[in-house]
Here is the input.
Amino acid sequence: MNEYWPIVVIVLQLIFLEGILSIDNAAVIGALVTPLPNDQDIPWPGPLKKLGKMLHPFLGYQRMAALRVGLLGAYLGRGAMLFLTSFLIHNSWIKLIGAVYLIHLAFDNLEDMSSGDSDEDGELKPIKVQTFWATVLTVEIMDLIFSIDNVVAAVSLSDMIWVVMLGVGIGILTMRYAAGIFSYAVEREPILKQAAYILVLNIGVELILDQIWHIEIPDLLRFGISVVTIGLSLAYAHIPFLQKFRFILVWLAKGIGIVNEFVDWLFMPFRAIFNLLAGLFVRPSEPQLAE
Here is the structure.
């Protein structure tokens, strides 16, 4: 029995590591799926509608389905990443591409604050809503980018691939439950939408600092930065005095909008490919005829 204790310890370490490194992932995925309806079926394309009816008891309605489909993609993606670890370690340009994408995604959503619009409660303008399949595709891309550091860190703890896969697998499942909890939290605290994309921006900047200037931020410090970011966002939403400085956020968001115009130009080919892939699954809604 004693010979199994080292494996148990490694698995527990991997679960803990996955939890620390995935707080940003859970927050962002939770924010992404929140705009999806929680009482509408998945908009399957015509040829797949019968398959959709069969899968409905397992997938549920759109919001929960996005998390469950994302869970399957996360396992497949992390599995592929585990076998490509050595390639990822020796090709830092992959992380740089991921960092630029994360910063672009954050800028694209945080730019909405620049309009200065607010609702009756003084909340910032809501994050733009995507269709179901576009949301699922975004979730998968986000998970692949976030998983690079997770997988590299996991492999550094053990050279037994099945132990690593077990620990990472349990960690992914835990993270997805956390994303579901976060999506409900966003309904009660809309400011968490903006906080999630600030976390995305943090990760993108951290990746660039690591890959270009070789400034490595410890995992616990990254976790602390994420917690502080969420805490400050909640404080801003509930403390009237802090809301007097909203003009600073609007000013920063307008600057983000200017930078984002240039980033949009750089990402135009990738956006076209993304829209093409999303268009394969999403069709314009048509009136439903009574059966």
